[in-house]
Every structure is written in C-alpha cells, then in structure tokens.
Amino acid sequence: MVDSEATPELPSNKELKLAMKAFRKRLKLTCLDDESGMGYGATSSGQRSRVVAIEPPNQYSQAVWQELVKQGRLKHDGGGLYSLIDT
Question: Which domain of life, per UniProt (predicted)?
Fold first, then answer.
C-alpha cells in the first residue's frame, strides 16, 4: 500500500545557504529600518535596534526554515518569527 502523502524532500544545501543569506539580509534591513525611525536623530541617544526576531522571507518554504532550526542555525521564537543563534 502506498502512503497517500508523499514524504517532503529535504531542501538542498544550496537552497539552505541562499535562505540563510536572505534571512540575514532581511534581519539587517529590519534593524536598520528600526534604528532610522523617529527619535533616533542626531540629537537623540542613538539607541540600537531591539529587533531580534523576524518573519523569514516567504520565497522559501516552511520546510527550509524548519531544517535550519533543526541544524541549529536559526531559532524558532513562535508566532512565525525566527532569530539567529548567537555564536
């Protein structure tokens, strides 16, 4: 008897590498956007961004993000948010 649901394929190493690059870029841009908001002007205290988790880029499947969590490269923070593992 054949299982009606096919087992999902594991993402390729190239796809995982590209997904991590896209994740880091989105995190960096999100932090820069947060830092450039109102109250961070030349006369302000120059606070750093408090963004630590983001929603990953949607051009990659959920399986990619789950595999990166399994490999210990990302942390799932709940609510669809992921953060980088401190190394």
Answer: Bacteria
